[in-house]
Amino acid sequence: GPVDWPRRFDHMQQHSGEHILSGLLCSLYHCDNVGFHLGADTVTIDYNAELTWEQVMAAEKAANEVIWQDTPVDITFPAPDALAAAMALVDSEELSVDTEASAASLARAGMEVDLGAVAKGACCGTHVRRAGEVGIIKILSCQKFREGVRLEILCGSRAYRYLSQVYDQDRAVAQLLSVKPQDTLAAAERQG
Q: Which of 22, 64, 132, 162 is the most buried (most CB within 10 A)?
């Protein structure tokens, strides 16, 4: 059947952006990505460690630097014997949650995604060819969730639309307060 390219590319941006951000967070702060949901409006990612807003902002900055460096995304399809080994790992009781999920994903998908030093792992989703195609990653929230945190993020065109909407709103507020958009917070504080 025909591919809905705008929808597919949006999903590629969100999913590849999640890989970049998760790879950095997990290597910087020794946590695991234990849940991912690509919703109609936003993406949520769950981690099994507590992270501060400052830590996730540092990871957001680093993730966007990876995008601006236009790191290649290498997709490989392991040989059948590697897939058989992954299938055997799924049934093992000695694996961590992260390793088991990666082995299960490889066994299902039969492909591995490699972003160089940033992230590498089994996956069954669609991805961009180069990190630059993600465009931008914006973290909207970081909330306590179970034994870790849940991040809400936007990537690519979703992030652009959101940031444009926020800017338009800020500009409208600035006009009401007779200030420049970058001065709305100070003007609102003077009003209060």
A: 22
